[in-house]
Amino acid sequence: MTTTEAGSEACVPSAGGGGEATGSTGPVESVESVESVAAAGSAGSVGVEVVGSLSPSRASDFMTCPLLYRFRVIDRLPERPSAAAARGTLVHAVLERLFDLPRGGRTASAAVELVGPEWERLLAAEPELAALFGDGEAGDAERAEWLEQARRMVERYFELEDPRRLEPAERELFVETVLDSGLKLRGYIDRVDVAPSGDVRIVDYKTGTAPRADFEARALFQMKFYALVLWRLQGRVPRLLQLMYLGNGEVLRYAPDEGDLRATQRKVEALWEAIRRAMDGGEWRPRPGRLCDWCDHKERCPEFGGTPPPLPVGPVGRPSPADLEGGGGGEVPARERDDL
């Protein structure tokens, strides 16, 4: 079992000879900002035609349910904002802004004071979020409780580490690289810490609770995905992957090695081939599971008597990165809220 009591850190043992378990080793808490880990830009295989693009969120969608992937990526069907996802966005914004404060000012009380202004900023950017709460006194009470939950998550972060001892090298870092196969990998990393030794720690905040032991590999897939991209950009395997669960105050740590990252590359390339076959054949099979009751597209799903919308007319073929996940024309795509 790898999860522990609130405020302590869990170590993930190596699977099949992969990364070593970690305890007190790894990047020190007092890390220093160094040259940007994104200095290599979107480095990848020179001269390789880009055949598609994949992020951790969309890869997870396909693994969860190929039809969900289709609805989100091919059909681009709208989804209702959820209170949980919006709270995740809010807490992430607060923790990013926290490191704009001077070291000595990075206290729990200062962070909690950021919740209100960051919510107003988020609401100004996405006015539709106001519909998450009802009207009148009941809606006001619901919103107040929601904000209080966000504040508690921010406070819980301080039980896990002291931000006054940290100076992240990067925050909300967009990374991308192209594999030899032509598959572009891209995503957002919450935080990158670099120790004076050059060791890199990838940190991701989660506003949910830590997974059970049998679901840890799935949780770590996102982190190994990021580690693979940074490894290809830098030529150095990140020393530590750290997931911080603010829903229950647990931390999951994993030290990857080259074998882990090569296996991750094989996995994402196999996923892409499965996606390509689904595109070529127009077959996006639903995979019913425990998350179906929370899916915005349940009414369209054949498993529940629904009918998906018609696929685009003509062969889909191998779409460009813009066709798949946005960001065409060279711009950086928006972060997917389900990564939070």
Describe the protein in words.
The chain is α/β, with parallel strands linked by helices and 340 residues long. It has two domains: 244 residues, Lambda Exonuclease, Chain A (Alpha-Beta Complex), CATH 3.90.320; 83 residues, no CATH class. Helix content is 37%, strand content 13%. The chain contains eight helices and seven strands; from the N terminus they run E-E-H-H-H-H-H-E-E-E-H-E-E-H-H. Strands 1, 2, 3, 4, 5, 6 and 7 form a seven-stranded mixed sheet that branches. A hairpin with a 4-residue loop joins strand 6 and strand 7. The chain is globular. The two termini are 24 Å apart.
Please write out the topology.
Elements lengths: L8 E3 L40 E3 L1 H9 L1 H9 L8 H16 L9 H18 L10 H25 L9 E9 L4 E12 L5 E7 L9 H19 L5 E6 L4 E5 L3 H24 L39 H5 L15
Parallel strand pairs: 1-7, 2-4, 5-6
Antiparallel strand pairs: 3-4, 4-5, 6-7
Helix pairs in contact: 1-2, 3-4, 3-5, 4-5, 6-7
Keywords: ATP-binding, DNA damage, DNA repair, Helicase, Hydrolase, Nucleotide-binding
InterPro entries: PDDEXK-like_dom_sf, PDDEXK_AddAB-type, Restrct_endonuc-II-like
Organism: Actinomadura spongiicola
